[in-house]
Amino acid sequence: MKKLRGNLAVKISAVILLCVMALLFAASAATAVMLGELGAYSGGYESGRKNMLQKRCQQRTYEAADRVLAGGEKPESVFAQENFRFAIYDDQGQLLYSNWDGAAALAQAGVQYALTEGEPWREHAARLQEESLPTVTPTPRPTAQAQADPVATPVPTAHILEASDSYVIYEQGGELHVRPQEEMPFDWQLRTYRVDGYIPEALEAEDEIAHAVRIYDGAYRLRYTALVAAALSFLLGVLLFVFLCAAAGHRDAGERITPSFVDKIPFDLFTLLMLGALALPLSGLDTRFNIYNDIAGILLCSLLFLCAGLLFLLWCLSLAVRAKLGVVWKGCLCYRLLRWLGGGLRGLGRGLAALVRSLPLLRRWLLILALCWLAWLGLMAMIGIDGEIFFLWFVEHLILTALALYLLLGFRRLRLGAKAIAGGDEGYIVDSRHLVWELKEHAEDLNHIRDGLSAAVAERVKSERFRTELITNVSHDIRTPLTSIINYVDLLEKEAPENERQREYVAVLSRQSARLKKLIDDLMEASKAATGNLPVDKQPCQLGVLLDQTAGEYGERLAAAGLELVLSKPDKPMIILADGRHMWRIFDNLMLNILKYAQPGTRVYLDLQERQNRAAVSFRNISRSQLNISGEELMERFVRGDGARNTEGSGLGLSIARSLTQLQGGEMELTVDGDLFKVTLLFERQ
Amino acid sequence: MYNILICDDEQDIVSALEIYLKAEGYRCFAAYNGREALELLENEEIHLVLLDVMMPEMDGLSAMTAMRQSSNVPVILLTAKGEDTDKILGLNVGADDYVTKPFNPVELLARVRSQLRRYMQLGGGTKREELLCCGGLCLDDKRKEVTVDGEAVALTPTEYEILKLLLQHPGEVFSPRELYRRVWNDEPYGAESTVAVHIRHLREKIEIDPAQPRYVKAVWGQGYKLERGK
């Protein structure tokens, strides 16, 4: 089934078969319906044949009456060459004309034909009866108008055109009138004729009746076959239709639905086109062709129906494809139109909202006030209030508006003040004059906040400066005694004490004093770097060169510590603006850090990359000891990854590196991922 | 026998320095402020001055300014601040070298030796034109000899070539790539860090403190240069 539905040849065959089925169904169903109407199924051959002939006879009788009585043809020439005879009687039952010999008839029909006395058939009736039918000369019935105007105007001759049991249509003075019989302004008379028609038993002439009898004979022979054929073709047709619908849109054995160009036509447009194309031939069909008799007409008609049916089929299949894709409604032109309209409206709304939002507070509220005024005035114009009430109302609104404006201006002042204070403007004073109630209090509170804030900022700046000075002075004051300590410890060492224990003690003194020296140096540098108290001389700095220099300085020391340095950098030069000495201090600190804390026997990676137009240098190594601490904490002063704090170093290396990086406008990221320790430096590229 | 004037307000430091210098065979004179130092300088034949910067009565920088008006005796500043601005100021005023407190006695002695050798040699010996010199660093291309303050230094051929190039263009910054091209006569192809390694070895041989080089300096992120002598 899946293979079949993707096959184009199968589909085309199905369509052709469906057409054949449709034609077959139409033919067999028409036959069956005709036979059914004639009662051939219930009453048998004779009954059906009789009914059929009876029908024809009735038709002909009417036609004959029409042609002779109304049309004025000579009775001898009407149906002269056909298997039909007729007789005309007047309303007294007197025979006027007959060509019927009174022999046995296959069918017989009688028609009452009412004729008014009037112009068109006078001659003809006179010829039939050899008596004149007088023209009606209306004698007006007395009316109210007639009494008011006694001078009777001459009444023109009236011609009765048609009369039924209740209505009369007549022509008088060039105008057409339709009146109920009771309201007729004049008296008139109707003459009723009777026409009897007969079909003789011997169908001598080769006419339509003989033809119809033959068709009936044939149809009757096929009466059951037609039923079966109709049912089968209907069933098969439905099956084919269902198959085509199911297969619509499938181009291969897969489940994929591929819309064709037909399915791209807007659905509503397609539907309208289809209905138009169907209605056009159908509407003109009856009038243009005698579809019952003409063979060419039948063929043309079938062809038209076939085309219409194919078009309908196409529409159905397209509907099936769209339903499968779920785009029946979305494929409609009106859907797109509605969407477009909706989008436009939404956009308009959004634009207006954005416009109002973008307005400053004051202008936004002024706009709202203006709109309110417009609404008030409009309302008043509509209701029509005038005089004193209007004046009072107007004054009330004027006062309210003034109050609202005052509050708005006050609020704006507070807002500007708060903004300035939030932005760090310590000198801003919110003007609390001319403000009342809570607005005044708020302004004063804002000023208090500002006072507190500027005091706190001043305090912080002062304490920062004090701290830097303290560290500088203390470190200076410590250096002098430390110099003596180092020198005399060195001298002690040179004395080479004989006692082993003394030598050990002196060694400890020497080591610790050296560490103290390093600590003081780092402390001072960290303090200066953190407070930005260092001159920065920015020069173009090639990070690639710096990496090479670092590798040159540290390569052998790393190798001695059992570490392998892996360097990678791009071919193109990466230039940043930085102070070379500070950059070296950063690299130096980080490499020292690696040297101290990296696990021997591992690799150290030094990468230079471009990241979002910034130069990124990353240092990666495997930590020797477990790091139970976050990268952020590691950058704090005096924090070291090893809890014991027994290794040499001050714990300031990373902190200094970060401060120096920030001082030059860079960024330092530190990540600890298990034992992987990674520092990334980010600088803006030149 | 050289005479060295030690000037510091801290008596312990003066004593310690005396012990070190005497052990090396120098004669020492002690002063405890700038004024005393100037007096001693007038009265005695002094070959080198160790001068503390921060002192009462007259500080080291003023004392040195006064000294320089009459004498070109080498002066090594002892600075406790260790700040770049102080060092630069001291060198500009006329100091020959500086040591940051707390100093390493061995390093101090090396600097003293270096300054004395230069002072005495430059004063006595004649300067030869074919020598490439910068401060106490001299390169004799005919003899393929390098001396630092008169003391011969053994360099590898590569180190020698690098130093020669730098001495020929004092003050000029060479990138590692450029140095490699000029010295190795080849394209580096990623071997730039080799240059850095050789520079470090060179520095270890000719500098007293390789971390604070006097001659071969790194311009970080750009390359290397020879500090132009005064």
Describe the structure.
The complex is a heterodimer of chains A (686) and B (230). By secondary structure, chain A is an alpha+beta fold. Chain A has helices at residues 2-5, 8-38, 40-70, 122-129, 144-148, 208-221, 223-247, 267-288, 295-325, 333-358, 361-383, 388-422, 437-495, 500-531, 543-560, 580-597, 631-634, 653-663, and strands at residues 85-89, 95-98, 105-116, 158-163, 167-172, 175-180, 190-200, 539-542, 564-568, 575-578, 603-611, 614-622, 667-673, 676-684. Helix content of chain A is 58%, strand content 14%. In chain A, the strands form 4 sheets. A 5-stranded mixed sheet of chain A has the order 9-11-12-14-13. Chain B has 230 residues and is of the alpha/beta class. Helix content of chain B is 43%, strand content 20%. Chain B is built from 8 helices and 11 strands. In chain B, the strands form 3 sheets. Chain B has a 5-stranded parallel sheet with strand order 2-1-3-4-5, with helices on both faces. In chain B, helix 3 links the parallel strand 3 and strand 4 (75-79). The chains are: A alpha+beta (686), B alpha/beta (230). The A-B interface holds A 476, 479-480, 482-488, 490-491, 513, 517, 521, 524, 535, 539-553, 555-556, 567, 576, 578, 580-581, 583-584, 587 and B 10, 12-13, 16-17, 19-20, 54, 80-82, 84, 101-105, 175-177, 192-200, 218-223.
